[in-house]
Amino acid sequence: MWIYEKKLQYPVRVSKCDPRMAKLLMEQYGGADGELAAALRYMNQRYSIPNKVVGLLTDISTEEFAHLEMIATMVSKLTKDATLEQLKAAGMDDYYAAHDRALFYNNASGVPWTAAYIQAKGDPIADLYEDIAAEEKARATYQWLIDLTDDVDLQDGLKFLREREIIHSLRFREAVEILKSEQDVKKVF
Q1: Residue of 5, 35, 177, 182 marked catalytic
Q2: Which residues are recorded as binding Ca(2+) (predicted)?
Q3: Which residue in 108, 130, 141, 131 sits closest to 58, CA to CA?
Q4: 112 forms bridges with which residues in the sheet?
């Protein structure tokens, strides 16, 4: 199903060590509206959605895993050279005590990721509307993260991710229309 290309979907650059920003980015790593939750949600939903749009869920799920890799790279680069004092000042001392600098799926507040973040109703239209909402929440979070940093290199990667969330939302909207038109055809016959 996958062929892994050993490069990021988009280059990740940061211009400075910034543990505070790394902590905030954890929202997109292990938060309810983050990349892991999205990737797993779409991968799971593909088993109960009509064949006409199953490929879309697979494609977007795969891309969300690529986004997860980008976020992990950003967090890693932002904390790589951080001193313990910088980690403490950023409020990451609890995280450090539990994980050192290893990545762990939790949100910016330190709440661990949970499967409860993954929604699947089994109704294709309901699931696709859930997916649209998830993409719009991710888009909003990326915008807020962009607003919270003055690192133009980091902003570049975050803007790429924000734009991809917009594309995903549009593609899910198209899938809703495809399935609704299919339902209309069935009603005629």
Answers
A1: 35
A2: 59
A3: 131
A4: 106
Instruction: Find the catalytic residue in 168, 174, 177, 182.
Output: 168
Binding residue per annotation — 168?
yes
| 163 labeled binding residue | no
Distance, CA of 131 to CA of 41 (rounded, Å): 8
* CATH number belonging to the domain at 19-188, selected among 3.10.120.10, 2.60.40.10, 1.20.1260.10, 1.10.260.40: 1.20.1260.10
Question: If 0-12 CB within 10 Å is exposed, 13-18 middle and 19+ buried, where does residue 29 land?
Answer: buried
Residue 165 falls in the annotated catalytic set: yes
Angle between helices 35-45 and 124-147 (to 10 degrees): 170
Residue 135 is among the residues annotated as catalytic for this protein:
yes
Q: Which residue in 27, 63, 64, 130 is the catalytic one? A: 64
Distance (Å, whole) CA 23 – CA 107: 8
- pTM equals 0.93
> What pLDDT tens digit does each residue of the chain (189 aa) get?
678 888 999 999 999 999 999 999 999 999 999 999 999 999 999 999 999 999 999 999 999 999 999 999 999 999 999 999 999 999 999 999 999 999 999 999 999 999 999 988 999 999 999 999 999 999 999 999 999 999 999 999 999 999 999 999 999 999 999 999 876 545 544
Beta bridge partners of 91: none
